[in-house]
Design a protein that fits this description.
By secondary structure, this protein is of the alpha+beta class. Helix content is about 40%, strand content about 15%. Helix 6 packs across helix 10. The radius of gyration is 29 Å and the shape is globular.
């Protein structure tokens, strides 16, 4: 890490329309917390910023579903999520919210600066307008028949049936989702940010950061290749930050524009709490500050392209030095989904399980380079076999032996043997190894480095056999116990960014009167246990998880998924009947997926190359948010082979991949055994 006088770390602002789940934690919040706690131990000047994203259609839709107001929604989930983060040990310096007056003013001032500079572009748009509800209908407020595949119920932004990316004006027979009436087309003025104007500078910026993760750089390259275009900064809504121009009544700033400014407004709020109104400038405008933005991969475009462009356009702001985006965490082989209840909410587990056990397991499986999976049985195994049986055992066997044979008094150390020196040398190397991993955002490696050293400690204890040497070689026995206890002291510090609660307890248990947070990472190798000092009360640091608890969790998850699937089937109306002759016109074929890759500028579409035996086809499918593209390469899927080709995102699609779809986000790709040859007809 380049030495910096100060650091600012931001973690993506979560939508305040639902509770935080473990997938969120693994995406941005646990990695950023580990990184911040490590830097605090290094005595760096660092602040940790986040908060609730409380505007936009997602909030108003949630309010409609729950038959309440947007404010009631955000007030509820902001407090619940803030509490969940705190109990999970996410140590924000401030967790703010975008509904605060300071955020509204910050966003409006930012907009006005771009407006006064003549950067924003005015455009007259034609949009759907509901005369009954007296409002323009944004993408999620309108639905109709898809112009591509003719399926009903297509939303204003995308058809879930064929995956086509849509403009609300393209819908056939559009209807307002609020009242069911047909909207009219009405002209409205909006302001656009000329993103393409900054493409050259953004490319230089991205290419200059060679230490960015490949997923971030590759994602940026995809957008640059397709060329950046203007993005609307304003929209016709009532819930949000009002456009600060008198004549623009009934318009708010687009959430993509103002939400990221929440990092700046939260820093201003933090400064006010510290009675220093200019504090924020040190972290956002002083070149000696390093800015690191932690996000999930679905936020890459906003933090690696859009937000930097906004900061460049405004001027006088620092750009993110690094954007360590994680991939997605899946649950029991399926996608984390609120609507399917396929999720583990933090507020539901923080009272049942050890927070540090959850943090340890998530760190062990963080989706740093590719999607990963959380399994309840894996959580149990890592807690029982690694935290309890490896780390906990090393602590317990060392401290109880001292308690029993030395009255709890830390024994002195004498002349070291070659095995003692070898163990001590390994101990001294640990902090640097772990620190290097954390600085490179390799948190899984840091976690593994520590637990592997604990294994070395257990082996050293076994090989030294203090239960024998206490009778035959007292000095050797004392050396063994002294070095093991010293190792525990060092492990407690290097593990504290990952396991803050248990590390603090272990630190006190082995006789320390200071707080572990006050230690300095740079001096860890100099930490020595004090000869003659008495240990405090010995406690088991990690409890095992019984099979019954895990079986109950798995059964509950399966029950929830079954109920959702059943409800989905009941709610989906059967389409009009067709004749046998009509069905026989459909040519269903087995196809082998040869390649699958995301389509730049589309969150939902992927491009597949498939073989149907007699030829290869290009198929565009709206499954990017449901599956990892790499995971379906080589699979046998089912496609409609004689569908009239359509163009999606400028690419021709020569067929349609079959998958399940439901109102509750139920998804499964229809795949067959590899033994079934490509090109085979399905009857």
């Amino acid at each position: 890490m380049t030495k910096s006088s100060r650091h600012i770390v931001t973690a993506a602002l979560p939508y305040a329309n639902g509770p935080i789940h473990l997938g969120h934690m693994a995406g941005a919040y646990l990695p950023s917390d580990i990184y911040v706690r490590y830097n605090r131990l290094k005595k760096e000047d660092i602040i940790f910023i986040s908060g609730s994203d409380e505007h936009g259609v997602a909030i108003t839709i949630a309010a409609l579903k729950e038959k309440t107001t947007p404010k009631a929604i955000v007030d509820n989930y902001h407090e619940r999520n803030k509490k969940a983060f705190s109990k999970f040990g996410i140590s924000f310096d401030i967790y703010s919210r975008t509904s605060n007056p300071i955020h509204h003013k910050t966003s409006q001032d930012f907009f006005l600066e771009l407006y006064k500079k003549g950067i924003l572009v005015e455009k007259n748009d034609k949009q759907l307008y509901c005369k009954n509800d007296k409002m323009f209908l944004s993408d999620r407020y309108v639905e109709g028949t898809c112009p591509k595949c003719k399926s009903e119920g297509a939303k204003g932004d995308q058809c879930e049936n064929c995956g086509s990316w849509l403009n609300p004006l393209e819908l056939i027979l559009p209807k307002c989702k609020l009242c069911g009436n047909n909207p009219i087309i009405k002209s409205t003025k909006h302001y656009y940010f000329p993103l393409g104007k900054y493409q050259s500078e953004l490319e230089k910026y991205a290419h200059s950061n060679k230490n960015w993760k490949s997923n971030v750089l590759n994602y940026c390259e995809g957008w640059f290749k397709e060329k950046l275009s203007d993005r609307a900064v304003t929209r016709d809504l009532t819930w949000g930050v009002k456009v600060p121009i008198d004549e623009e009544v009934g318009k708010v700033l687009y959430v993509w524009f103002e939400a990221v400014l929440g990092y700046i407004s939260a820093t201003k709020e933090f400064g006010e709490l510290k009675n220093d109104s200019s504090l924020w400038k040190k972290y956002w405008q002083d070149p000696s500050t390093t800015y690191t933005a932690f996000i999930g991969k679905d936020n890459i475009v906003f933090h690696a392209i859009v937000f930097p462009a906004m900061l460049i356009a405004h001027g006088n702001y620092l750009l993110p030095k690094n954007i360590p985006a994680n991939e997605f965490l899946n649950l029991e082989g399926g996608k984390f989904s609120k609507s399917r209840h396929n999720a583990i909410y933090v507020e539901d587990v923080i009272e049942k399980y050890s927070i540090d056990a959850l943090r340890y397991t998530l760190t062990s499986i963080l989706p740093e380079n590719k999607d990963s999976d959380f399994y309840w049985k894996d959580f149990q195994a890592r807690t029982n076999n690694e935290l309890a049986d490896i780390y906990g055992n090393f602590i317990n066997r060392t401290t109880t032996f001292i308690q029993k044979n030395f009255n709890g008094i830390i024994p002195s150390i004498g002349k070291l043997s070659s095995s003692d020196i070898e163990f001590q040398t390994s101990m001294m190397k640990l902090p640097k190894k772990v620190g290097n991993h954390i600085e490179q955002f390799h948190f899984r490696d840091a976690n593994n480095e520590i637990i592997d050293f604990v294994r070395i400690g257990n082996k050293y204890f076994n090989d030294s056999a203090p239960w024998k040497s206490i009778s035959t070689d007292k000095e050797k026995c004392q050396n063994t116990l002294h070095l093991c206890l010293n190792a525990i002291k060092i492990i407690a510090v290097v593990f504290s960014p990952i396991l803050p609660n248990s590390s603090a307890k272990i630190w006190k248990m082995i006789g320390n009167s200071t707080n572990i947070e006050n230690e300095n990472w740079e001096n860890i190798c100099n930490l020595k246990v004090e000869e003659g000092k008495k240990l405090n009360e010995i406690q088991i640091p990690f409890s095992k998880i019984e099979d019954e608890m895990i079986e109950k969790e798995i059964q509950n998850l399966e029950k929830q998924n079954t109920e959702v699937v059943n409800n989905t089937v009941e709610l989906m109306a059967i389409k009009p009947t067709i004749t046998l002759e009509e069905f026989q016109k459909i040519d269903l074929r087995v196809a082998t997926v040869l390649s699958c890759e995301p389509i730049p500028k589309s969150k939902k579409l992927v491009k597949l190359e498939v073989s149907i035996g007699i030829e290869k086809r290009q198929v565009i499918a709206g499954i990017a948010q449901e599956v990892d593209p790499a995971s379906i390469i080589g699979k046998q899927v089912v496609i409609i082979a004689n569908l009239q080709p359509v163009t999606l995102m400028g690419l021709e699609s020569q067929g349609m991949v079959l998958a399940t779809s439901g109102s509750n986000d139920t998804f499964a790709l229809l795949s067959l055994s590899k033994d079934v040859p490509a090109g085979l007809h399905i009857k």
